[in-house]
Amino acid sequence: MEVKDLISKKKINGFAEYADKHDIFNIFHDMVQKLLTKQPIDPIEYMIEHLQQPQVPSIILHGITMSNVKVVGKILAGKLNCEHIIVSELIEEAIRTKSSLGIQAESYYNDRNFVPDNIVVSLIFKKIQEQKVAKRGWILQGYPKTREQALLMKRKGIIADSFIVLDIPDEVINKYVADMKYDCRASTPYHLKYNPPPSIINPNNLIDIPVEFLTRINKKMEIYNRNLNSIINCFKSVYRSYYYKDGIYGHEEEVANIIYNNLGQRPIIDNPSCLKIAIAGLPGSGKTFLSEFIAKKYGVIHVSVENVILEEISTNSELGFILKTYVNHYNKAPKDVVLDLIVRRLKKEDCEQNGWILDGYPTTQEEIDGLNRYDIYPNRLIYLNVPKETCISRLVNRRIDIKTGYRHNLMNLPPEIENIVQPSNNNNNNKEQNSISTLRQQECDKEKYVLERIEEMKDLKEILIKAYKYKNRVTNEGIMQDIEVDGIGEGLNPKCPSPSMNRAYDIIKGTLMRPVPFKISS
């Protein structure tokens, strides 16, 4: 018999909750990694100093050649106020200033040969040790290009807290390069739309890209693709990928913003966890849909106001009989009764043993205070950021198929449903059901009630921020995080959600594998 067999699941969950709340596993993971790579003379003193220092970014931004990832890195470094380190420029600077490492690199560089890894890694290490870089943090680009280089960096003590890959198909790069022009005098390529030449250069004097240039690009792409997976394996716990099937040309600022907003995510740590999730957002933001998927994926119990009311009704109790009045308008049920039902459900053994996801509750300070009185605290709160107009459109146009039970949206119907739905004759151009359709609108989804519910929750986000807070690096407190969810449509059926819900579900799955992310201030 093992020790764990003598401890109740509830007790183990308590350990996991404490560790999650105070970020214990992440602190020790980071500390051990730093100790082993830096090997300080006095480990205890180093740990104390390290814990007292503010955390700064240490990011490797990786992307295929000619993808404009360098532009994204520059924008991101500006947002983070950190150093933007481009390895090719670092080598050129060392050669120009005649540093000892620069002198060693010069002959290789001038002959267009690869500069030895030990020289490049030493240049990077020296750069990040500079006082201004150490205080501000850094973004590294152009390195590593192989698994061996990645491992050498780690052995040298160059530790990244994020390894970000911009995933862009080869055919997009090939098309971009094919559309480029070349300045023979300056040996410089230009793209007339995305990277035009200076005004002093006449575009008519530019020529098609030389064969030698194309050969070099193809060689770089081949090396990149051959080594990518092995490099990723060296950074598994801090790896994040962003896929752009059409490239990022002309959208570099937008891409940088997306990366910036996700930088609060911390490394994946394989540790015990007890999920007690609250999922919030305006009516129509997708809370219930996503809650069902999360409950199925992680085995937690899905609890909502609707669920607890229906459960009580199913018991045929006196209270259940009274609650039948609110079946179409759960938000109008007595608040004290709802609180009691929610608390009773969360205190049941299955919730205590498996964890839970609380869907759409609490929504007011009174409800938050009520949960607090019963010592019920979520350990993470996911807020779905959806424009009000999108929520209204989702709900007002939402229909239930009475034969299958599937949800559909009149603005995004599957073909087999659309052919039995006729356009209405009114002026709003929305599609309405005709008499042969099996789609029905729920009472609570009628526009009058939707607008009423949206208005009731106009201050929801501010209430939740005040009560639960975003996590910050100073106090390490806060459990709230935002997920962007946009788009119309309920999906064809529960097995095939809409693209926007798919994206949200993927993001949430990623966040639940990690500690609560820090909020990056703009």
UniProtKB/TrEMBL annotation:
UniProt xrefs under Pfam families: ADK
Alphabetical keyword list: Hydrolase, Kinase, Nucleotide-binding, Transferase
BP terms from Gene Ontology: nucleobase-containing compound metabolic process
InterPro entries registered for this protein in UniProt: Adenylat/UMP-CMP_kin, P-loop_NTPase
Keyword Nucleus tagged: no
The keyword Metal-binding appears for this protein: no
Origin superkingdom: Eukaryota
Region named Disordered: 420-439
GO molecular function terms listed in the Swiss-Prot or TrEMBL record: ATP binding; hydrolase activity; nucleobase-containing compound kinase activity
Family, per entry: Belongs to the adenylate kinase family.
Name of the protein in question: p-loop containing nucleoside triphosphate hydrolase protein
Source species of the chain: Anaeromyces robustus
